Structures are given as C-alpha cells and as structure tokens.
Amino acid sequence: MQFEVGQRVIWLYQARAGRGNVHRISVEIVKLGPRLVQIQVQKRNSEFVKRWVNRNRLEVPKG
Q: Are 38 and 58 in contact (CB under 8 A)?
C-alpha cells in the first residue's frame, strides 16, 4: 500500500498487543520511513501527538 505525507488514514490501534479490542483512529501521515510511518494524532484536548507505527497497522478509509 502506498502512502503520502498529508494523507488521512485509519490507525488500527491496540492498547495491549494480543488483547483484542482494536480501536480505529483517524490520523494524518507526517513522515515516511522504510519500515515505519510517522503519524499525527489529535487528542481530546486538541493537542497533537506524533507516533511511529508499522505500515501494516494503517489502512486507507473506504469511501
């Protein structure tokens, strides 16, 4: 799957690996690396947090 900086995607976030409960969070791509992608997440208090995540934890929204 090809990603671009500035693209809106869905992050499949799992608080504890192997515990079920996958949360689908809308995020924006900030940087692209060879294996990881840096995303920007907006918190409830309108602050932004950046995280490096595996590409296989991201999906393009349908529609």
A: no
Distances in whole angstroms, Cα of residue 47 to Cα of each of 24, 54, 60: 19, 23, 23
Distances (CA, A) of 52 to 23, 26, 32, 63: 17, 15, 9, 26
pLDDT in tens, 8-51: 999 999 887 677 789 999 999 999 999 999 999 999 999 999 99
- Is 1's pLDDT higher than 80? no
Sign of dihedral through CA atoms 41, 63, 17, 56? negative
